[in-house]
Every structure is written in structure tokens, then in C-alpha cells.
Design goal:
Layout lengths: L6 H14 L14 E6 L2 E11 L11 H19 L2 E11 L5 H17 L3 E9 L5 E10 L15 E4 L5 H10 L6 H11 L5 H8 L4 E6 L4 H12 L2 E5 L7 H10 L3 H7 L6 E5 L4 H12 L5 E6 L5 E5 L2 E3 L13
Parallel strand pairs: 3-4, 8-11
Antiparallel strand pairs: 1-2, 2-5, 3-5, 6-9, 6-10, 7-9, 8-10, 11-12
The structure holds adenosine-5'-diphosphate (ADP) and magnesium ion (MG).
Adenosine-5'-diphosphate binds next to helix 1.
């Protein structure tokens, strides 16, 4: 059997039960954005790891080493944000092909260090090996959170309002611009920045995790079409998305208009936005979104509802059911 027949998530679900069965109470293993390990009474450790492989996650010709260093750490910090935690330390392993210059690697470390300094993360170790042809980057980040406030993918409730903490689709638009070699203007430059230099929503994660009424949380790495399905699986529910409410930036709208892209589909399936996807008690949504706006000076848009139709993700536009072309990212499924 080839892995493409079950996909990335089918594969993870296949191996997980064997390693989840002996896990002690209070420990979270495979299945969420981070593993959670009890540490002290009011403190749990969060651990996450992400790998970036040349020509799969990035093209060396389309991202500067400095941005790649920054992004490699940012995608890991985003998983800490997704649980409501604060990152503390990182480990970086590199598989380096022979054609990479030391100056390129110096710049990679400058980018990584920029973000590490910004977020007070210490690089504490890693590993260095030769790679046959492609650059391999693996980062592990350790963070902390008060167990009372950690948010999981498994705690969405029927009727919850689904929200995102930022624009979606910009990164996907940036990737499309790079791949289609669009000539640079301000809008395209903005989209490419969002793709090559994403911001982990750490402050938002810590703040949201403390709000009573925020039920489930994860980060948007594969696109909401795929990421919502992870929440649906873990929370045993369905979801309905109102496409008219998706927060799509003016820049993505403009560029989509010029090149005849479907901005809704870019927003839904693009991925790598690294904002947070949260589900909020409908009775507390107005209060939470009002407080969010005061704190972060932008809205917390509600984009849909958690439904009781387990496993069903439905999209509506002008109140009509629509079918979305394409899906979120899965390493082994091209659909
Ligand atoms: P994220 O996109 O938030 O990094 P993933 O979708 O990559 O999360 O992974 C989902 C869950 O599966 C996480 O808990 C991750 O640690 C776990 N996981 C992924 N790949 C493997 C693997 N090969 N072996 C064990 N656990 C894995
Ligand atoms: Mg994640």
C-alpha cells in the first residue's frame, strides 16, 4: 500500500493509537499542535517539531536565507501559540547539501536569531549532517503554559463560532505569485512577505487561551479546509463556513482580480498563514471579539459555526451551499 492512498493524516492516525494507549493522565501525545507534558503545578511543558525540506516546503531560489531562517522558527512558534503557550528554547538540526556556502548559512542563522531575540527564545542545540542533495531543516521548540489555560483541538462544541485571528490566503497568494513569477508591485511584495516571513500569533494565543468561552484552538498551517478537519476529527463534529465572512486582505483581492484567481479558494486552501483558528462559545463571542479588538486593534472575524454533522465541512456563499475546488495541504494527496 502506498502512503498516497491514506494521505499524511491517514498515516498519522494509523500510527497514533499504538503510542497513545500507554500515555499517562495529563500528558498529550500525538494529535495536537504540541505535546503537553506536566512539569509543575501551574506549568506544563509544550513540545513541537516541524521539518522543512528543500523543494517540498521551499525553493532556495525563491526565499532568502535570512527569511528562511526566520520562517523555520516562526512555523514552530506558531504551534506553541496554538496551545496558548510561550516558547522558551529551540533545537535546530540541519542536513546540508554540498553546494551551500557558509555565507548562506550565516544569513540563515541571522534570520533565525532575529526572531529568537524578538520572542526571547534560546537556541540550545541541534545536529549537523551532510545531505545528499537537498537542504533539510528540522526545529524543535519547547515552551510553557499554565495547564489551566491550554487549548486543544478536541474541545470544540456544537454551536461554537469559528474565528480566525488574521487574514487568510495572503501566504497562498504569495506562493502563487512566486511560482507564476509575477512582476513585483506593492501588493505582490506584501503577499510574498506574508509567505516568506510569517508572524506566529503568540500574543493572541496567550490572550485567547485565557478567555473563558474560547473552546478549541489550532494554527492555520495547511489551510482552513484541512485544519478545520483536524478540529472536526478531534472534537467529533462538523463545520459550516460562510465564505462571505472570510477575512481576505485588500491586497489579495486586488491581485486576484488582476490575475483572475479565485480569492475565496486561495483563502480556504492556501495554507501557511500561521494565524490561529479558534472556536468560541456563541454566548460569549460578542464580549470576546470586543475585548480582542481593544487588545489587538483588529477584528476577530467569525467565519462559521461548529455543527453536529460529524465529519461534514460545508461552505456557503450568499447562503447557498457551494463546492470548493482543491483542498488544504496534505503531503501525500494531490486529490
Ligand atoms: P502541525 O501541523 O501542527 O505541526 P501535524 O499535522 O504536522 O501538526 O501533526 C499532527 C500531530 O501528529 C502532531 O501531534 C505531531 O506531533 C504528530 N506527528 C506527525 N508526524 C508524526 C510522526 N511521523 N510520528 C509521530 N507523530 C507524528
Ligand atoms: Mg499546528
Amino acid at each position: 500500500m502506498k502512503i498516497s492512498s491514506i494521505g499524511e493524516f491517514g498515516f498519522i492516525n494509523r500510527i497514533a493509537p499504538q503510542f497513545l494507549k500507554d500515555i499517562p493522565d495529563g500528558v498529550t501525545g500525538i494529535g495536537d499542535d504540541c505535546a503537553v507534558i506536566p512539569w509543575k503545578e501551574n506549568e506544563s511543558l509544550l513540545v513541537t517539531t516541524d521539518m522543512l525540506i528543500e523543494d517540498i516546503h521551499f525553493l532556495r531560489t525563491k526565499i532568502s536565507p535570512r527569511d528562511l531562517g526566520y520562517k523555520s522558527l516562526a512555523v514552530n512558534l506558531s504551534d506553541i501559540a496554538a496551545m496558548g503557550g510561550t516558547p522558551e528554547s529551540a533545537f535546530l538540526s540541519l542536513g546540508i547539501p554540498g553546494d551551500i556556502d557558509i555565507e548562506w548559512l550565516d544569513d540563515f542563522y541571522i534570520g533565525l536569531d532575529d526572531l529568537a531575540n524578538q520572542e526571547h527564545v534560546l537556541l540550545l542545540g541541534g545536529d549537523t549532517t551532510k545531505s545528499s542533495a537537498k537542504l533539510v531543516i528540522n526545529i524543535t521548540v519547547i515552551g510553557k503554559a499554565d495547564p489551566e489555560f491550554i487549548k486543544y483541538r478536541s474541545t470544540a462544541k456544537q454551536g461554537d463560532i469559528i474565528c480566525v485571528t488574521g487574514f487568510i490566503g495572503d501566504s497562498g497568494g504569495g506562493l502563487k505569485s512566486l511560482m507564476e513569477e509575477k512582476s513585483l508591485d506593492d501588493d505582490i511584495i506584501y503577499l510574498i512577505r506574508r509567505h516568506n516571513s510569517p508572524r506566529a500569533h503568540l500574543a493572541e494565543g496567550v490572550w485567547l487561551a485565557k478567555q473563558e468561552g474560547v473552546h478549541a484552538m489550532m494554527d492555520v498551517s495547511d489551510g482552513i479546509d484541512s485544519d478545520l478537519q483536524r478540529i472536526m476529527e478531534k472534537s467529533r463534529c462538523g463545520a459550516k463556513i460562510n465564505i462571505d465572512n472570510l477575512p481576505i486582505s485588500q491586497q489579495l483581492r486586488e491581485v486576484s482580480g488582476v490575475f483572475d484567481w479565485n480569492s475565496d479558494e486561495v483563502a480556504i486552501t492556501g495554507g501557511e498563514d500561521y494565524c490561529l483558528l479558534v472556536t468560541v462559545d456563541p454566548g460569549l463571542y460578542n464580549i470576546i471579539s470586543g475585548k480582542f479588538e481593544k487588545e489587538f486593534h483588529r477584528k476577530l472575524p467569525g467565519i462559521g459555526l461548529i455543527s453536529n454533522e460529524e465529519g461534514k465541512l460545508k461552505y456557503f456563499k450568499n447562503e447557498k451551499l457551494v463546492v470548493i475546488q482543491g483542498h488544504g495541504f496534505d503531503h501525500f494527496n494531490n486529490y
